[in-house]
Design a protein that fits this description.
Length: 161
């Protein structure tokens, strides 16, 4: 038996993460460390550069609170940022236009989310220049939203030296 989470206003995308993915996202995050990055045609990583995949979705209040803190921490650490939105903010053309810009991906159908077993938002996956996962952080860590930039900067410093 498979249980799925249905969302309203999903822009026609009826896929959803499986219940197992949602329930184990945080518990099994550590198992991803050191794994090679799944090969996906819609995910182009810049060679020889640390890259953070920032998984977020429509209606995620925590995502809205930490968006700028994630961007600032990446900028300060010299980490390339790729935002992977599970569902767009809205179906309005101005909200859809952002996905034509580099570094912004609308994961319609959930292929990227599935490949990284993301079912909880926000989720962060740091990829090192060797193409291996250095960090998988689910649910924004333990830091409150107002301290998230400091938390993420500390994680970058510890992992990237």
């Amino acid at each position: 038996m498979r249980i799925q989470i249905k969302r309203e206003d999903d822009g026609g995308d009826r896929s959803s993460p499986g219940l197992w993915t949602v329930l184990t996202s945080k518990l099994l995050a550590g198992r991803w460390i050191g794994r090679p990055v799944p090969k996906l045609p819609q995910l182009e990583l810049e060679a020889k550069k640390n890259t953070l995949l920032y998984f977020r979705t429509r209606g995620c209040t925590v995502c809205d609170l930490i968006d700028m803190k994630v961007a600032a921490a990446c900028h300060q650490a010299g980490v390339n940022l790729i935002i992977v939105d599970r569902y767009s903010k809205s179906d309005a053309p101005e909200d859809q236009a952002i996905y034509t810009q580099p570094g912004n991906i609308l994961d319609f159908g959930g292929a990227i989310n599935s490949a990284f077993q993301v079912g909880v938002y926000p989720s962060l996956v740091l990829i090192n220049p060797a193409g291996r996962i250095a960090l998988k952080d689910v649910g924004g860590g333990q830091a409150p939203a107002e301290q998230f930039g400091t938390y993420l900067s500390g994680r970058f410093q510890a992992l990237l030296g």
